[in-house]
Write a structure and sequence with these properties.
It comes from Bursaphelenchus xylophilus (Pinewood nematode worm). This is (pine wood nematode) hypothetical protein. The protein is α/β, with parallel strands linked by helices and 329 residues long. It contains 13 helices and nine strands. Strand 2 and strand 3 form a beta hairpin.
Length: 329
């Protein structure tokens, strides 16, 4: 393979540079990759054997289990985990009296200034929050929505819904609602799914969606009573063509305990407190999270290659993608 991998050899993930999510939650994902070709096997092994990623993988696999019983878990145990998750949500309550309130966090000063400033004279009205899975970005957005709901009309749209069930008119209707109710804060969570993970086997549809989003941002760029917040785990495209719209790009630091709670949240949602659930079942869920991270590495490496105008993913792309996803840079 000589340290490179052609994008054309990624049949499960890519269709003409369009991400195909059919394998996203497939428990046989890794196994299927190994069956596709030796090149895929090489890619998988490269990712999993990378030192920084191995550390991350161990933390995901075993960091949680040391706090879990070795005997079969019960509904009481799972409810205890759910309580822990609920306590984490309270850290993002908007009340200034709370020591965990985002309003008291100096890291978010620029975000507050963006939301609370008078009608700006600048021509940019989009604030981009770059987070990582499980670090509380969505909770932060909900806290913002509660905090400013009295002074602004708040429109909150999780872009995941569009990537799963594409609706050409929904994005347009969201912007229409925002413009019809100024002053307004428009929040689009996981915005990368609008322009990077648009689930379609048709490349033309994907480019249409991407172009539509850019056109909408252009059309509302000078509307002073509209403030837009975008969030994403993927920074690549926002560093290039979408950067022209952004007032600021703020990175939300990776917090290991947040990801741990994120995993617990997945457990409690999926298991629904059924009794006699064994720890082995939880391990499978953890491994599924590792598969998701591997998927993110593949996606990131491909996006780096695409940005160079290349149809080949090199080892350097994979190394950079691993460092990006594992939070080692």
């Amino acid at each position: 393979m000589n340290g490179r991998l052609s994008i054309d050899d990624l049949p499960f993930l890519f269709r003409r540079q369009v991400v195909d999510l059919v394998t996203f939650n497939d428990p046989t994902f890794l196994f299927r990759l190994r069956l596709v070709s030796k090149k895929w096997n090489y890619l998988v092994q490269t990712v999993l054997q990378h030192r920084s990623w191995t550390i991350q993988k161990r933390r995901l696999d075993f960091g949680l289990l040391k706090d879990m019983p070795t005997i079969p878990t019960t509904s009481k145990t799972l409810k205890g985990l759910a309580t822990l998750v609920q306590e984490d949500e309270e850290r993002y309550l908007p009340e200034p009296s709370s020591p965990y309130s985002w309003l008291n966090n100096p890291d978010y000063t620029s975000l507050r200034e963006f939301l609370e400033r008078p009608d700006p004279r600048v021509e940019k009205n989009v604030f981009f929050l770059h987070g990582t899975s499980g670090n509380g970005t969505t909770f932060l957005l909900k806290a913002i929505a509660r905090q400013y709901s009295k002074d602004y009309h708040v429109v909150y749209m999780p872009a995941t819904a569009l990537s799963i069930a594409p609706d050409r008119n929904r994005l347009l209707s969201v912007f229409k609602e925002a413009l019809s109710n100024t002053p307004c804060i428009l929040i689009i969570d996981d915005a990368d799914k609008l322009i990077f993970e648009y689930k379609s086997m048709n490349a033309d549809e994907w480019f249409l969606q991407k172009g539509k989003f850019a056109d909408l941002l252009t059309s509302v760029q000078k509307i002073k009573q509209l403030r837009i917040i975008l969030t994403s785990n993927e920074l690549t495209l926002f560093r290039t063509e979408f950067h022209q719209f952004l007032v600021n790009v703020q990175h939300i630091p990776f917090k290991p305990h947040k990801e741990r709670l994120y995993i617990l949240r997945k457990f409690t949602a999926d298991l629904a407190f059924e009794e006699a659930i064994r720890v082995e079942s939880l391990v499978k869920r953890l491994n599924g999270h590792v598969v998701k991270a591997l998927y993110c590495v593949c996606r990131r490496a491909a996006s780096l290659a695409i940005m160079r105008g290349s149809k080949t993913i090199w080892d350097e792309d994979i190394d950079q993608a691993i460092k990006y996803v594992s939070g080692t840079r």
